[in-house]
Sequence to fold (659 residues):
Amino acid sequence: MGGYKEYKIGVIMFLVIFGIAMFMTIGLGGIYLGAVPATQHALEKQVHYGASAWSIKDPLMKGWNQPKIEKRGKMVSDPVGVGKKIFIREGCWHCHTLLPEQSADWEYFGEPPLAGDFVGEAPTVVGSDRKAPDLMHIGSRMPSVAWHLQHHKDPRSVQSKSIMQMFDFLSKDELRALASYMVSLK
Amino acid sequence: MTTATATYEGIKPGTAAKHAFFSAVVWLCLGASFGFFTSLRIAWPDLLNGVDVMGPLASAFAFGRVRPMHITLVIFGWISMAFVAAMYYMTPALCNCRLWSEKLGLWNIWLWNVGLVVGAITLLIGANSGREYQELIWPIDIYVLTLILGFAAVNVFMTVLQRRTQGIYITIWFFMGALVMIWMTYFIGAIPDMFPVTGLNEAYIVWWHAHNVLGLWITPVSAAIAYYVIPKVTGNVLYSHKVGHLHFWTIVAFYSTPGAHHLMGAPIPEWMKSFASVSGVMILIPALAFITNMVLTVQGKWHMFSSNVSIQFALTGTLMAVPLNFQGAFQQTRAINWYIHGTHWIVAHAHFALLGFSTFIEIGATYYAIAKLFQRKIYSGTLATVHYWLTTIGFIGFWTALTLAGLIQASGKVYNTTFIDVVYATHPYMVARSLFGLTIVLGQWIFLYNLYKTATAGEPVTEKDAPATVYYT
Fold:
């Protein structure tokens, strides 16, 4: 076994340096971001979905554990919340961002969000890759549910140059829920 | 000196490494093929529509479900498993002892394979955590932390503890350090899956994790492998141990902090962005220390670039690190990030790191280790050369096409162009990307075939420690 004294010093140095790096980034950053108060917009989002990550209560990401609303005397999952779940499940966020950047984006796709707009939302799916338009304010740009239904079923029927794939394999209810979510993004 | 000989009963030393290398290469072929498939869906979105056979599979093979599978299989199937394969081969070699437990190693690799199959199925049915580079759901995260990363770390650390050498070579520091760092990184990345972490904190942890999987696992371990393969195969002594120290400590200090530079456009506090951006540029210090050390180690042996396949791949990967790190260090500064963020430029850069740099070095190590482990010559030098050129030409074309497409998107973003026109303008580049992607994929299947033939029909080498040039015919 043996070993030199340097190894002990090395291990301590490693833990100290790595610890400082973690504290600076995860620790301080986390405390700062965690202290941001929720805005009105964030509270509205929490009513519809809030935490919508994968859960044992909803293994197939169908939206079974989303907040319930009353519809024709029955309690059903909020379609906006179900839509968000489908947005995560189908990986829409691999191409669409939910975050207009500081550039001409702000004129084209609308205002950037405030830090408090995300409180209570998980996953935030802000996205990283912009193969497709930003959706943060899609509900204001395109408020028609019918348009979204048609667009998801057959994108090229409403935009001939679109490279979005067809989501014709989604059920009618799922397409409706996804359209409700799109329209809710004001 | 105590050695745990009991664990070797019935298992030949090196078995775990053999299984690991072959499994990793199979995942490389599958992962790359799925990547090619997603690229086709971008170039021709209607490609598979109306094909009856797709019927029930249409949802499983939708773009949004295959893309995370491509990422997961390539990063956690190929790259990470090739790393552990290299650890299982190089740690005993450098510690002058046997692997602590071949049995644990075999369990590790096969549980890993099972985990990847289960993970791929969950992603295909849509069970996705919604966090890029961390798409697996939390039960699988726990599996990864314990049975995959945990087992690998225990085996490597115990091997080092029973070493029969006085010093510890630089490769081993990196292996041990990186195993600790990836465990922490993966654990922190999985926290939002298990606990109610929401809002910007969640978004920040996603990108902190995504950055550090590269910075604290893929970059240092790739370098560690080069630190072994290049001196070993050329027969030269490592140029400088001290520069190696500089590399190691600056990786630990600077590479764990720039996570926030992925969120330059998000409403996170300015100090976080500035801190991330400055430490992001500091990444150049470990990168240049590594490249300098490697290039000076090869002094006098550059001719091996054309005579030895391991050196050819490992040096290409090392030299790719020059443009890669300059691109990476400066593209995350605010002015450049503002221009190219969210475009195909970034996709090109990600492939630069994972394919151009990391994969090339691992392929070099795989050729070397497979020849050594089976004590056979590589089956076909011609196929190895074909593999090299298909991968290299494929990658350069792929990167160029995506970078150009990214610049088109960036100018479209900045000059307020109608969005769909930009999508349309990048179409030819997407087609080019698919073609070059196909080139890369073909190369990897040839690689797998060549390794399989090496293991079964390669010419045996009798000398126990023959010079490495023997293995390249």
Chain B touches chain A through 83 residues (CB under 8 Å).
